[in-house]
Amino acid sequence: MLNIHQLYVLKNYVLQKQNKMIKKIIILTLTFSLAISAFFLFKPFNYIDNDQSAVLCDNGGIFNIGPNYIYSFEDRLDSFNGIKARKLCQFNAIRDYNDTYKSPETINYQFKPIFSQDSSWPDALLMASAVILAAWLLIGFFVKKDLKNYFSFKYIFISFLLGTAVYFVVLRQPTINLYCQRQVAQKVVNFRNSAFKYGVLSVPEEDKHIKEITPEIFQKCFRSEF
Questions:
Q1: CA-CA distance, 57 to 199, in Å (whole number)?
Q2: In angstroms, what CA-CA distances link 18 with 14, 135, 185?
Q3: What is the spatial distance between Cα 194 and Cα 184, in angstroms, rounded to a whole number?
Q4: Hey, where are the domains in the chain?
Q5: d(Cα 125, Cα 39) in Å, to the nearest integer?
Q6: Is the pTM of this model over 0.90?
Q7: 3-state DSSP: the chain helix, strand, coil percent, rounded to 5?
């Protein structure tokens, strides 16, 4: 028979073991959920390279769109940029924001988009691995003697399942939000680099239009991912 003191010591030992186990699972669950989030945040996407994409004019002219202040964030030219393309083909005119030239009523060009890819699946896997590695280093720094127990198969398996659940319940929406913001930012930067050649020049008319269309582009991305 165990006396009261022995029972008390045994109870405390069991509670300490349980607390350590719960703490390990929480830390590893958080690690895996953040790693999964990083993986999907940096997954690849295609965007139109405005520097290489072109309008093929009916009169035989060929113009790269970005350097001529025409851009597309989707697979077509919107009405604002379509008018600029018509004037470019008809009059070789760019930045005619005051409508010095009347835009042709009919489309006089074909749009030839060239796509580029941002990031890659290996890059996404690398970012997820970086999160796990950072966690491993932090755990190794603070917990030295118990490091093997942290990375036992039992804890890894349970924590991975819980981390996946945490990602889909808690982190998926903010991850998609950031992912779509990254897409929109890359598309805008691509045009600015093409038009301004990495300079700081800003055109108010273009800034206004970009500000108007980017929320809808973001929403389309978000709806397609969610």
A1: 28
A2: 6, 22, 46
A3: 16
A4: 4-48+117-225, 54-113
A5: 6
A6: no
A7: 65, 10, 25
